[in-house]
UniProtKB/TrEMBL annotation:
Methyltransferase domain span: 42-137
Species: Eubacterium ruminantium
Gene3D superfamilies: S-adenosyl-L-methionine-dependent methyltransferases, Vaccinia Virus protein VP39
CDD domains associated with the record: AdoMet_MTases
Protein name: Ubiquinone/menaquinone biosynthesis C-methylase UbiE
Lineage top rank: taxon: Bacteria
Length: 257
């Protein structure tokens, strides 16, 4: 079974073409504007193929995209070149990322935080974020909720069949560990084959941790960051028991020593 987001990177944008990235970025831009972050350097943890990174670059931010998948970053850099942006992409593990200086904000979207399955690692990431933020800088991130994994996708199979690509997601949620296993099977048409009926199969295993809002707040407090607010995703409403994705805003409040 391949490393997470290795082969999937090749078809990620094709299969995620239903995601309203423009709307998601507009929502994020409003959150940044609300705290008067209208320019400057922003770092994105788990930037993937740069869909959010490059859109924020178009708003005038100086972007740093960080991801541990070289395959995803290759695609992100191609987008940056096409957009003639100055975005910097770094292949780093978010649990030990390094920057050259501080930034006005750090963001992490598209449930990248859920891929951090160890609570101590989550605190480590937030401590790093706190250290690399300008004084009063923001950490804005989202996460999928326990309700989403346990009640919406648990033990479900999600499949889609297209002309050149098909995929199957098999989900299994462990209520003892709150870990969701996503076994991905990809079937990609072999463009080098003379036959239209030849597909290559790739398999990946994705592990995601379901966190409660209280657990996220505890990690923020332990890291030295200051919790500001939480929203039901893409709204200005407080999250509730039916929230599937929650946005968090935290703030730098002094460096760890």
């Amino acid at each position: 079974m391949d490393t997470t987001y290795s082969k999937f990177a090749l078809v990620y944008d094709n299969l995620m073409d239903n995601i309203p990235y423009d709307e998601w970025t507009s929502y994020l831009k409003k959150l940044l504007d609300d705290y008067d972050i209208k320019e400057g350097i922003i770092a994105e943890l788990g930037c993937g193929t740069g869909n959010i990174t490059e859109r924020l670059a178009e708003y005038g931010y100086d972007m740093i995209g960080i991801d541990n998948s070289p395959e995803m970053l290759d695609i992100a850099m191609q987008k940056g070149a096409a957009n003639k942006s100055s975005s910097l992409y770094l292949c780093q593990d978010m649990r030990e990322f390094e920057l050259y200086g501080t930034v006005r904000a750090v963001i992490s979207l598209c449930d990248s935080i859920n891929y951090i399955t160890d609570k101590d690692d989550l605190v480590t990431i937030m401590r790093l974020v706190n250290n690399y933020l300008d004084p009063g800088g923001l950490f804005i991130f989202d996460f999928n909720t326990l309700h989403y994994y346990r009640d919406v996708v648990a033990d479900n199979t999600i499949a889609e069949d297209r002309d050149d690509i098909s995929f199957i997601w098999d989900n299994y949620f462990d209520e003892d560990t709150n870990i969701n296993e996503l076994a991905l099977s990809l079937f990609v048409k072999d463009k080098e084959s003379e036959s239209d009926d030849i597909y290559k199969k790739y398999s990946e295993l994705h592990l995601q941790k379901a966190y409660t809002l209280d657990e996220i707040k505890e990690a923020i407090a332990a890291s030295g960051l200051e919790f500001i607010t939480a929203f039901n995703a893409f709204t200005s409403n407080a999250p509730d028991e039916d929230s599937e994705r929650i946005y968090i805003i935290a703030r730098e409040k002094g460096k760890n020593v």
